[in-house]
Design brief:
By secondary structure, the chain is α/β, with parallel strands linked by helices. The protein folds into three domains: about 5-105, 2-Layer Sandwich (Gyrase A, domain 2); about 125-205 and about 380-440, tRNA modification GTPase MnmE domain 2 (Four Helix Bundle (Hemerythrin (Met), subunit A), Up-down Bundle); about 215-375, P-loop containing nucleotide triphosphate hydrolases (Rossmann fold), CATH 3.40.50. About 45% of the residues lie in helices and about 15% in strands. It has 14 helices and 13 strands. The strands form two sheets. A seven-stranded mixed β-sheet has the order 3-4-5-6-2-1-7. Helix 6 (about 150-170) runs antiparallel to helix 13. It is flat and about 85 Å long. It starts with 5 loop residues before the first strand and ends in a 7-residue tail after the last helix.
């Protein structure tokens, strides 16, 4: 069964100066010959050619630049033709319709990247990194995705696979001699190597939270009593007037969400209605939403009016789960004595901007354990799929160590190590991963 030639628009939909259409497969060049004019007789790979794309009657659809990437030296490992045309929904649609008429089929989401994986151009961790790079919200997320795309996580997995293969070979050397137990010296050596593999897996698993934060951001809720300055703080953090600020209590009646970049960490900040007793039905609904958001938050920024008493915030129930930063606002005014000696508060003035740097540092320290944020050398960060298989591998290796310590048959020890080897292989795609592929590439945009 022949593999179809696929085509799709690889740039974002909408109007722009330039758009790109990508064609991949054995028929890419033949389609281009019928589409592009004048077609050069000595077409060279990786050279751009200027010409016209023509319809079935020979009329020009658009002036374009055509580039041919010859297999296997292309992204997918197949012949690829890329057509750079004028941006816009109509012109790209007409070109794509003509390409389909010439024999190409529409690409499924992520199909170009999937073909790159199937043709051995990238492993699964690199494929996932492509989507991470596209959806990155901060410079740190871009760097983390770039490292994974360059193969750093894949290299870690290859190292682990190499270690497991060597341990398996050592154990299985005794399987051919059923009457001979693993000698104590070899058992100690294998146990040590198993422990080192488990330690290495633990180091990778420890990056899971960091990876989730870098990729997805931290759901952060701004809460407090009415008029504490929540909307003013949101505006300061995002850098423009996102929320309405008024001296009248109860101005914010629904949640407002914005994303800010905090030292490379995306904070998904939600400004909520001030929490107080209210007879207004609409305001009460807003207050209830505030409480719901606080329960779901990973980080709560509790804003306190420095001119009010401590009793004013007693009614605000902070959820036990999650992290909390308590912020004393309006420090440009006389501070009530209830707060004078408190050392657990970050003191700011949303009016003057004083203390905002201290607040940013406090949040960074709480989320990363350091004033400097995530170190640039610590960007290898596993995602939930990697985490699942690494945990499976870890359990198998611990069980292998236990079986070895109990002097069980080498077959049982080898079985556990081979199961771990399968799990590590699943991370990079070196195993039967049809179901995994469907899950990963279904999240991609069409054309990538």
């Amino acid at each position: 069964m022949s593999i179809p030639t696929i085509a799709a628009i690889s740039t974002a939909p909408g109007q722009g100066a330039v758009a790109m259409i990508r064609i991949s497969g054995t028929g890419a060049l033949d389609i281009s010959k019928k589409l592009f004019s004048p077609f050069p007789g000595d077409l060279k790979p990786r050279y751009q050619y200027f010409g016209q794309c023509r319809d079935v009657d020979g009329k020009s659809i658009d002036e374009v630049l055509l580039t041919w990437f010859q297999a296997p030296a292309s992204f997918t490992g197949e012949d690829i033709v890329e057509i750079a045309c004028h941006g816009g929904m109509v012109v790209t649609g007409c070109l794509l319709e003509r390409i389909f008429a010439l024999g190409a089929t529409p690409a499924e989401p992520g199909e170009f990247t999937q073909r790159a994986f199937l043709n051995g151009k990238i492993d699964l961790t690199q494929a996932e990194a492509i989507m991470d790079l596209i959806s990155a919200q901060t410079d740190l997320a871009v760097k983390a995705a770039g490292e994974q795309l360059a193969g750093r996580l894949g290299e870690e997995m290859e190292f682990l696979r190499g270690q497991l293969i060597e341990i398996t070979a050592h154990v299985e050397a005794y399987i051919d001699f059923p009457d001979e137990d693993i000698d104590p010296e070899s058992r100690d050596l294998i146990t040590t190597r198993i422990s080192k593999v488990v330690d290495r897996i633990d180091q990778l698993l420890a990056t899971a939270d960091r990876g989730r934060i870098i990729r997805e951001g931290v759901k952060t809720v701004l809460c407090g009593a009415p008029n504490a300055g929540k909307s003013s703080l949101l505006n300061l953090l995002v850098g423009y007037n996102r929320a309405i600020v008024s001296s009248q209590p109860g101005t914010t009646r629904d949640t407002i969400e914005e994303v800010i970049n905090l030292d490379g960490i995306p904070l998904r900040i939600i400004d909520t209605a001030g929490i107080r007793h209210s007879e207004d039905d609409i305001e009460r609904q807003g207050i209830e939403r505030s409480r719901e958001q606080m329960q779901q938050a990973e980080l709560v920024l509790l804003l306190i009016d420095s001119t009010e008493t401590e009793a004013e915030i007693a009614a605000i129930e902070i959820p036990a789960a999650g992290k909390v930063v308590r912020i004393l606002n309006k420090t440009d005014l006389p501070v009530h004595r209830d707060w004078a000696e408190r050392e657990d508060l970050v003191r700011v003035s949303c009016l003057s901007g004083d203390g905002i740097g201290d607040l940013r540092n406090a949040i960074t320290r709480l989320l990363t354990g350091s004033d400097e944020g995530f170190a640039q050398g610590d960007l290898v960060a596993v995602n939930s799929r990697h985490q699942h298989f690494l945990k499976m591998a870890r359990e198998n290796m611990i069980e292998a160590g236990n079986r070895l310590g109990e002097n069980e048959s080498p077959e049982f020890v080898s079985f556990e190590i081979r199961e771990a080897l399968e799990s590590i292989g699943a991370v990079v795609g070196k195993t039967d991963v049809e179901e995994i592929l469907g899950s990963i590439f279904s999240t991609f945009c069409i054309g990538k």
